[in-house]
Write a structure and sequence with these properties.
This protein is α+β, with helices and mostly antiparallel strands. The radius of gyration is 38 Å and the shape is flat.
């Protein structure tokens, strides 16, 4: 009687009471099993999470490191060219002075005067970048002046005998100062040494040994013997023992005879100053500048370290040899492959051992006999976040086990009391619902339940039965979008075309998964050699519809470009006819299409409603437009398109063909980027390559947008005549 009364009472309860009793009744077994299974699951989860995170971190690190070395390689090349040009100017000025007459009363300041503190020039003060080790091994600033230079005579040289050359070089500080002010971080000392035994250095300072003879220095001998501009290996300079690289070149008398050497010391801090690594890597990372060894000597097949951050200190003996070290790894084959890549002009990232630890080696693109950067980051630093994530999961698992133990004890008592009152009217629907939920979680979207309880459980079952089809539909849509995006990206050019006399680059940046912008490069071999079709289009709207219309237009254009390439008006008429039949009244397409001819260096074009292309005529110093020649495609059947004369491009001319996503890009204030800003970006970067011009324009748009999301597709093609 008691049992039946309990069953009847439970059936008449509201669902909230049924659920309360059900949860209490079934809590014990799931809790015990769940505790055991959860422990194993959490361990697997932690390991999987760490593995996935490690893979992502490694991929991101490779990309970031390659970006760092590529950018830094460009900076190194730029800095080297700047310094070499500065040295060229310095050498030219020295030779001009050697060819002239000395001033009547030259201002001369000698090293011993600086050391004694007498006969000092104006402006002498403690330097903020020239330091010397004191007797306790600490660095202390030395006094220098940027108003004058210092003169040093080699042992045995008579001052009167070299008075004329001293006088001729006395006016060099103004040249040194001008070059130094433009390259302050790149220059440590600037100096000139002559065969007559004279050595002058800027800025003026003391600290020269009494037996100093510049002709015995490695930089002097190398520049003299090679008779050309040279870079030395790192070595301590004479005054402060600071480790520097020296850039030196010979100078000559008016009759062409060898006069001496002029040089610039480059601080290693300046070399590595513009290379910035993420904070979590910087402590353990190694940054070096290396160059391939010369064939036929001891360095052959090795990477010689030209500079590394650990060199940025002081040497003990200025008379000592150049510092020569090699970059080595336990993975010799990988290191050889790295060197081969760099010499071939390829940058990259490789995983190999360094000083007993796995590390990622990022290396820049170099060439034979030229230096390139290498950044080495210990692999454990790269994946440290993954290890922390795994530890976090395990720590939480331990906490959960403690909580589960306490809960289990309380639940045991409660379940024993209420288990007798559990009714199948509650457990069976929930068990069915749980089974169906597991099937749904496993990917069975057809899983459903049949619950006929007449209460909230039945309503819950009906809601559950609607979930599967909706999830299937949602997943299908997501897969379709992903496939559409991948297909559309494959339809766009994967690399820039090669055509004699021109540099061409382009890309599309979509604001959604799929877009309506289109650009293409078509090799028109059927029309003859050296002809390239270039298309830029914009379909109304975004999403799948726009993408399909874009794909359709691409197919028609590619299939007819070769046959109608000689008559662009006819080609557009054919294309328009296809699009009118394929589209409804709400969609159309603007299109610019041109044929670039390497033989005549001309561009023939037709534009169906597309914004005019911008023509930057460098030789004439003005900007023109290539206007559209007809209505947008897909609107009016039978539309005609005007024939225009081709334009001839001169060297340095730039043509930019874009879509309205560029000039109509609006920032948070509602202001549009506009064509004036686009013209300014083109003009400012016109001396660069097509790819760099393209990057500069797109970067200007994104800088203008700030944090504002891109609202329209951006497509841009740059043509530059070489």
């Amino acid at each position: 009687m008691l049992g039946c009364f309990g069953c009847g009472s439970i059936i008449g309860m509201k669902i909230r009471w049924k659920l309360l009793i059900l949860l209490l009744a079934i809590a014990l077994v799931p809790l015990i099993a769940g505790t055991v299974l959860n422990r194993a699951h959490m361990r697997r989860l932690g390991a999987q999470l760490a593995s996935d995170r490690r893979e992502i971190l490694t991929k991101n690190a490779r990309h970031h490191l390659r970006h760092i070395v590529d950018n830094y390689g460009e900076i190194l090349t730029r800095d080297a060219e700047i310094l070499e040009y500065a040295l060229y100017i310095q050498a030219h000025e020295v030779e001009d002075r050697l060819a002239g007459n000395p001033p009547e009363s030259p201002q001369l300041f000698f090293s011993k005067d600086y050391d004694k503190g007498v006969n000092l020039p104006e402006g002498i003060a403690f330097s903020d970048k020239h330091f010397r080790l004191d007797s306790e091994g600490k660095t202390a600033p030395i006094q220098v002046t940027y108003d004058q230079q210092v003169c040093v005579l080699a042992p045995g040289v008579n001052r009167e005998a070299v008075a004329d050359d001293l006088g001729r070089l006395s006016t060099m500080p103004e040249v040194y100062r001008l070059l130094h002010n433009s390259n302050a971080t790149r220059m440590y000392w600037q100096y000139t040494s002559l065969e007559t035994g004279i050595h002058t250095c800027y800025p003026g300072h003391g600290g020269y040994p009494s037996d100093y003879d510049s002709q015995k220095r490695h930089w002097y001998a190398q520049a003299r013997d090679k008779d050309s501009l040279i870079w030395t290996l790192p070595a301590p300079e004479v005054s402060t023992r600071t480790i520097v690289l020296t850039l030196a070149t010979p100078v000559r008398r008016p009759d062409g005879s060898f006069a001496g050497v002029t040089a610039i010391d480059v601080p290693l801090g300046g070399i590595f100053g513009e290379l910035t690594l993420p904070e979590q890597w910087s402590d353990d990372a190694s940054t070096v500048l290396v160059f391939p060894g010369q064939s036929g000597d001891e360095t052959e097949g090795k990477l010689v370290i030209l500079a590394q951050q650990s060199y940025a200190g002081h040497g003990k003996d200025w008379r000592g040899p150049e510092l020569k070290q090699y970059l080595v790894s336990e993975d010799a084959d990988e290191l050889k492959a790295l060197m081969n890549d760099a010499v071939a002009g390829k940058s990259g990232v490789r995983k190999m051992r360094y000083k007993g630890r796995e590390a990622l080696w990022a290396y820049g693109a170099g060439r034979a006999n030229e230096a390139f950067p290498v950044v080495i980051v210990p692999y454990e630093k790269v994946v440290a976040e993954a290890a922390e994530a795994e530890k976090y999961v395990l720590d939480r698992m331990a906490d959960n086990m403690k909580i589960a133990g306490a809960v289990m004890f309380g639940v045991v008592i409660v379940v024993v009391i209420v288990a007798f009152f559990i009714s199948r009217s509650v457990t069976r629907p929930l068990v069915h619902l749980a089974d169906a939920a597991e099937k749904l979680a496993a990917g069975d979207y057809g899983a459903n339940v049949q619950i006929r309880t007449g209460d909230e459980l039945q309503h819950l079952g009906e809601i559950f039965n609607d979930m599967g089809p909706k999830l299937r539909q949602h997943e299908s849509m997501q897969r379709s979008l992903a496939v559409a995006m991948e297909i559309q990206q494959q339809l766009l050019p994967q690399e820039s075309p090669k055509i004699d006399g021109f540099d061409v680059a382009g890309t599309s940046i979509y604001c959604d998964e799929t877009g309506g912008d289109y650009y293409d490069f078509i090799d028109l071999v059927d029309l003859g050699a050296g002809k390239l079709g270039i298309a830029v289009g914009d379909v109304t709207g975004h999403g799948i519809g726009a993408a399909l219309l874009m794909a359709s237009a691409r197919g028609v254009l590619r299939s007819h470009a070769g046959r109608h390439g000689g008559d662009l008006s006819e080609l557009f008429s054919v294309l328009n006819t296809h699009l009118v039949r394929d589209t409804g009244e709400t969609r159309f397409m603007t299109l610019f299409y041109g044929v670039l001819d390497a033989t005549t260096r001309s561009l023939k074009w037709t534009s169906g409603g597309h914004d005019p292309a911008i023509w930057l005529r460098r030789g004439m110093g003005k900007i023109e437009e290539l206007p559209n020649t007809g209505v947008p495609l897909g609107i009016l059947e039978g539309a005609t398109f005007e024939r225009v004369e081709p334009v001839t491009l001169e060297a340095g001319d730039v043509i930019a063909i874009g879509t309205d996503g560029i000039w109509e890009a609006a920032n948070a204030a509602g202001d549009m980027f506009g064509k004036d800003r686009m013209r300014e970006a083109l003009s400012a970067s016109a001396e660069k390559s097509a790819a760099e011009i393209h990057t500069a324009v797109v970067a200007a748009v994104h800088e203008f947008l700030g944090q504002t999301h891109q609202q329209d597709d951006i497509t841009l093609v740059i043509i530059k005549a070489l």
